[in-house]
Amino acid sequence: MKNARIPIIRSSCFSSSRKHNLLVPPNQTFPPTQDSFSHPTATSLSSALQQYINSDNPSYGQKIHSHILKTGFRPNTNISIKLLILHLKCGYIKYARKVFDELPQTTLSAYNYMIGGYLKHGLVEESLSLVRRLVYSGEKPDGFTFSMILKASTCACKVPLLCSLGRLVHAQILKFEVEPDDVLYTALVDSYIKHGKVGYARTVFDMMLEKNVICSTSMISGYMNQGSVKDAEDIFRKTMEKDLVVYNAMIEGYSKSIEYARRSVEVYVDMQRLNFWPNISTFASVIGACSVLAAFEIACGHAGLVDKGKKIFESMERDYLMKPKMEHYACMVDLLGRAGSLKQAWDFVRGMHEKPNSDVWAALLSSSRLHGDVEMASIAANELFKLNADGRPGAYVALSNTLAAAGKWDNVSELRDVMKVKGISKNTGYSWVGTDIAL
Asked: For helices 42-54 and 62-71, what crossing angle results, to 10°?
């Protein structure tokens, strides 16, 4: 706070005028001027702060805080909380925390606002620290507090106990006899799903009188991730008010398995028939499904699947005015390559309007390895190494295995020497999507 700068208000901004009893005249969305009132009261300050909180330019309201500091006015709890909210809305988390620490009375709503502010800025440890302080203060958390703690448990953060936080919170909800609502139920389901506790999530889900589409989507994703397709389909059927996100969950879930990939395309067609507008995620999943099918369903013929995937890819810009992203280009390369059309995949890469990224080259390398094309594998691997030599250890393994399968043992020996220097094991996994050890 020593170096922090708070906007300074001029004394002229509070010149006398008997006609006004508000800091901010109705519909004003800019800083107070000379026409603003001169002797603000707690009521007028509170009203003015609320107007700025609700406005499109909340930062202008900080001049009120500057005035309070300058005049030595002692704000009550209501005004202090509104100042806290104002700073949070402006994104000034340090200012908000200073206001919080100086509150004449720390209320539950103040804790909730501050905890929520920390989470919005990704400060999970700080939010949990404040939760502990709340509990130690003897204040009883409410449903909103618990929903935010559950949100913290789903953040990708190396904070101890996050994996078990969902069950701990669930126990506290029951202990404090907190009346659960849709927000709390949804947060609890999502927390259990994110940590692989699908059975616990289903128990909570079944307790809900009205299943919202957000919870349904979480349940579908959870079941799909553990391969329980029938259960996911059951949830999908029972979801009365479907939206694009729930359709995407089904399309993505189906696309991961050769056994169900064709259903991914079928759901995509059904979704269009029902006038749902696909988004970026939809296209990545459905093209990926075509790719999975092209690699394994020989009996269905590659050409039809490749053509289907091409049409879907081309429809992005033509019909939906969406510019394909690198993930879509990588999916198309994977589709063409898995189907054995490596020449087409190579031509597709060379014809890209943007410079291919590592995912695109990794997809081509993966397909080249699959079909034993040493020349194409070498081209893809070299381009991949130029972009990300150390970030794709699986690429070295894929190229090495491709060379070995073709009997190019001198090349294998040279490459494995490089791998030893880089500390890459020949058992490193390779897949062009997914993990840190991917191609």
From this structure: 150
Q: What is the CA radius of gyration of the chain?
A: 29
d(CA 160, CA 146): 18
Distance in angstroms (rounded) separating the CA atoms of residues 122 and 231: 33
Please give the biggest Cα pair distance in the chain. 94
CA nearest 48: which of 56, 62, 306, 348?
62
Q: By the 8 A CB rule, do 165 and 152 touch?
A: yes
Tokens linked to 348: 């597709």
Place of tokens 């404040």: 130
For residue range 46-78, what is the model confidence (pLDDT) as tens digits? 888 888 888 888 888 888 888 788 877 888 889
CA dihedral 415, 421, 423, 428 (to 10 degrees): 0
User: What is the reported pTM?
Assistant: 0.73
- Residue 230's Cβ-side half-sphere holds a number of Cα atoms within 13 Å equal to 0
Phi-psi region of 421 (alpha: psi -120 to 50; beta: other; left: phi over 0): alpha
- Phi and psi torsions of 27, nearest 5°: 70, 5
Element (H, E) at 236: helix 229-238
CA–CA gap between residue 362 and residue 395 (Å, rounded): 7
Structure tokens at 431: 């897949």
Backbone angles phi, psi at 347, to 5 degrees: -65, -40
Q: 330: which residues sit within 8 A by CB, 6+ positions away?
A: 357, 359, 360, 362, 363, 432, 433
Residue-wise burial string across 111-123, b where 16 or more C-beta atoms lie within 10 A, e elsewhere = bbbbbbbbbeeeb
Amino acid at 403: L
Contact assessment for residue 32 and residue 40, using Cβ atoms and an 8 Å cutoff: no
φ, ψ of residue 326 in degrees (nearest 5): -60, -35
Q: What is the pLDDT of residues 214-256, one digit of tens each?
A: 999 999 999 999 999 999 999 999 999 999 999 999 999 999 9
The token pair that represents 56 in the structure block: 């499109």
- d(CA 65, CA 89) in angstroms, rounded, equals 14
Question: What burial class does residue 126 get, using C-beta atoms within 10 Å of its C-beta: 0-12 exposed, 13-18 middle, 19+ buried?
Answer: middle
Rounded CA-CA distance 395/383 in Å is: 11
